[in-house]
Amino acid sequence: MANFAKSDVPRFSVDVYQNPYLPEHGREVNAIVTVTATGGGTQGRAGGLPLRPPRGPGEDAPRDRSQGAPPAAVVLMVDCSGSMDYPPAKMRNAREATRAAVDAVHDGVAFAVVAGTHTAKEIYPGGGRLALADAATRASAKEAVRRLTPGGGTAIGTWLRLADDLLASSDAAVRHGILLTDGRNEHEDPEALREALNACSGRFTCDARGVGTDWEVGEVTGIATALLGTADIVADPAGLATDFTGMMAAAMGKEIGDVALRLWTPQGAEIAFVKQVAPTVVDLTGRRAQAGPRAGDYPTGSWGDESRDYHVCVAVPPAAVGREMLAARVSLVRPRPGDAPEVLGQGLVRALWTDDSAASTALDPQVAHYTGQAELARVIQQGLDARRAGDEGGATAKLGRAVQLAAASGNGETAKLLAKVVDVVDVAAGTVRLKAKVAEADEMTLETRSTKTVRVKKTGN
């Protein structure tokens, strides 16, 4: 295999934004932790390789494949169930999109393609292995994809388990899946999918897409959440190629995998919750893995050139005015076989008790913003659930609050999606009327993208 020694990988910084002041005997400390990776991945390099188009057929591609691991491994999982033939353009667009994604795989990256029905079949390269991308293997993979035909049922857990087996055969630093489905997971029970997600969690990341409107939003977003990837709808199959190419480009931009947010708290302090709040809202609280006395690791997946925000809430022991303590130490770490984890960055969360009520009641702008963004995602889901249940009053109240929050936070994209579901009467007051008729694609798009957030300009820490 190729020698992919990296001369340039991301450098990490950890910045903490908070109001450290608490009233006498106050207990709750909130902070926004911004993690930024620069100097690698998506802004200039991908997977340790220069960002350049793959070589075309007939071009020379000399490469020393004698040593080293591939920088990344990726498995494409394509729904080939019978429903992909209705209309026939859906399967045709899925084939074209998968071929475009294969074209976007960089030289030297390990990859495979899986056809998913009520079973999972590796259509390229076969034999339970991965191929190393070059002009020849990409051409062979695209030919295999061209022959895909729809038929059978849907059992997504089997697709994920096969992808896990294939990715486990590689010692690549970054392991990733891309999954497309057009229907509900009807040919395995929900527990089978949950078990598959539990088995795959922490082993690879996965982006999931639903095409058309006959799939289940909760299933697709659940896959992405469990495997620390993205979820979205492609309502029109004609948009699949663009979406797949974008997903693969993002995957090629990842340089470091298995990164965790490690939180250490002193005696008497406990982590109340940890949530990723940008670019999407993901609750990581239940994903904690013990990492020694008073410390726990929360998974963040793979990184390239990017920045993410996390909301950390710490319950500290009450104290008198004038006391100060370290509420939590935040570290970004990644494992090193046979050695202590590498610390990529670090920040501190503080608590300081005061009798100045103005100081102790002030909300840090970052904390306030993301608290609103998390509420926005929650009330959209609650509003849509109420609408489907026939509770017009509850739906109107929740979606009205969502309109109010979207406007206050500057989340223009979510505001546009809400406007397709409700008629806005008064933005500031959150007064809306439910639309009598809503396109299914519009409702599913709002639900799928409800967790996407907007960021605010950082003002200090």
What share of residues are in beta strands?
25-35%
Q: Low-confidence parts lasting 5 or more residues at pLDDT below 50?
A: 1-7, 41-67
Mean pLDDT: 92
Q: Fraction of residues in helices? A: 25-40%
Structural class: alpha+beta
Shape: globular
End-to-end Cα distance, whole Å, is 45 Å
* Total strand segments: 22
How many whole angstroms does the radius of gyration measure? 23 Å
Largest sheet: 7 strands, mixed
Count of DSSP helices?
11
Tell me about this structure.
The strands form five sheets. Strands 6, 7, 8, 9, 10, 11 and 12 form a seven-stranded mixed β-sheet that branches. A six-stranded mixed β-sheet has the order 2-20-19-13-17-16. It contains eleven helices and 22 strands. The model is unreliable at 1-7 and 41-67 (pLDDT under 50). Helix 1 packs antiparallel against helix 2 (135-146). The protein has helices at 88-103, 135-146, 156-168, 190-200, 217-226, 240-252, 357-361, 365-388, 392-409, 412-418, 440-448, and strands at residues 11-18, 21-22, 28-38, 45-46, 49-50, 72-79, 110-116, 120-124, 131-132, 174-181, 205-211, 231-234, 256-264, 270-278, 282-283, 289-290, 295-303, 306-315, 324-336, 339-353, 422-426, 431-434. By secondary structure, the protein is an alpha+beta fold. Helices cover 30% and strands 31% of the residues.
Q: How are the SSEs placed, and which strands pair?
A:
Elements: E1 11-18, E2 21-22, E3 28-38, E4 45-46, E5 49-50, E6 72-79, H1 88-103, E7 110-116, E8 120-124, E9 131-132, H2 135-146, H3 156-168, E10 174-181, H4 190-200, E11 205-211, H5 217-226, E12 231-234, H6 240-252, E13 256-264, E14 270-278, E15 282-283, E16 289-290, E17 295-303, E18 306-315, E19 324-336, E20 339-353, H7 357-361, H8 365-388, H9 392-409, H10 412-418, E21 422-426, E22 431-434, H11 440-448
Parallel strand pairs: 2-20, 6-7, 6-10, 10-11, 11-12
Antiparallel strand pairs: 1-3, 3-18, 4-5, 7-8, 7-9, 13-17, 13-19, 14-15, 14-18, 16-17, 19-20, 21-22
Helix pairs in contact: 1-2, 1-6, 3-4, 8-9, 9-10
